[in-house]
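RECORD TYPE: inverse folding
INPUT: structure tokens
STRUCTURE:
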């Protein structure tokens, strides 16, 4: 069963920023980040439980998926009842700490 994958506005902003940085600073593979993110969205649509579980007091079902070549994490929550994956953040894995996450609004 496929689920719908969408992202919150703050995640969209980070995605645009990361993609712009990647295109400007990785001339040998300018599309890599976008390609990995597109593949991750497809994977999450088909297998929403694939990411590692992360505990968060305000976000039940939080998970994290690594984009291995670009080294970004996709933080998301899977709502099985709504058949939806909500991407909450995309964050560089080399930053050493995760992003500040807010509870998603329905």
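DESIGNED SEQUENCE:
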């Amino acid at each position: 069963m496929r689920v719908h994958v969408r992202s919150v506005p703050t995640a969209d902003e980070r995605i645009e920023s990361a993609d712009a940085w990647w295109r400007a600073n990785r001339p040998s593979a300018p599309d890599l980040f976008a390609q990995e993110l597109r593949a991750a969205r497809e994977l999450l649509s088909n297998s929403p439980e694939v990411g590692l579980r992360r505990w968060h007091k305000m976000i039940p079902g939080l998970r994290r998926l690594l984009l291995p070549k670009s080294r970004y994490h996709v933080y998301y929550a899977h709502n099985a009842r709504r058949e939806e994956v909500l991407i909450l953040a995309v964050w560089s894995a080399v930053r050493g700490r995760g992003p500040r996450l807010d509870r998603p609004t329905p």
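NOTES: The mean pLDDT is 90.
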